[in-house]
Predict the structure.
Amino acid sequence: MEEIKPALYIIATPIGNLEDISFRAIKILSGVDCVLAEDTRKTGLLLSHYNVTGKKMISFYSYVEKRRIPDIISNIKQGESYGLVTDAGTPGISDPAYSIIRACVDEGIEVIHIPGASAVLTALIVSGLPCERFIFEGFLPVKKGRQTRLKKLKEEERTIVIYESNHRIIKTITELYEHFGNREAAICRELTKKFEEVIRGPLNEIIAKLDGMKTLGEFVVVIAGTDYRSGNKEEGGNGLEP
């Protein structure tokens, strides 16, 4: 069994289907002294599912991260090990993991990643759009800076991946259509779960399909870049005919 070091372990967890977790991730979760969880209740259910019992957990989310980092750093230096998990997927993608990773790096503390599920990569792969070059934008600004960001992304050559909530998905797809034109795209929800759904096609068709649809869960949106269907393989295009 892998020796657990005094270190910060970044542990990917399932994005939906609980079977999408590695044997190594379960071993590390079982062996660390403490688990840092975005939501201890959700993580508790995951640990219970894999019979990881009696594990010390501390909540670690955006409103508490700054005040908890000094104690965590101190404890690791004294020989303790910590495992950091997010509610779903790979820590560091649209969650507070960066702050503690940076703090550990600055203090010379080892950071070890236990790879696994990622909603970004899952959506990108099933979208049917080019995967070899892409940009991840997370959530777009809700108000300030939103229009500026959309104008910049309009010129992006690479495939674009963003997150969006069910409350704003129709507004966002409509704005993408207004700024980008009738670009090819895919929206993905409930990835890896029983009711996984991927809607592909031009933005105007996706808007029509969303009309009257129950938009439950969070969405991953994948939009073709300006190079899509360029037909120029040598200069980085995807070689598809118009």
User: Anything to note?
Assistant: The CA atoms of residues 4 and 103 lie 20 Å apart. The helical segments are 23-31, 40-49, 65-77, 97-106, 119-126, 146-154, 169-180, 203-210.
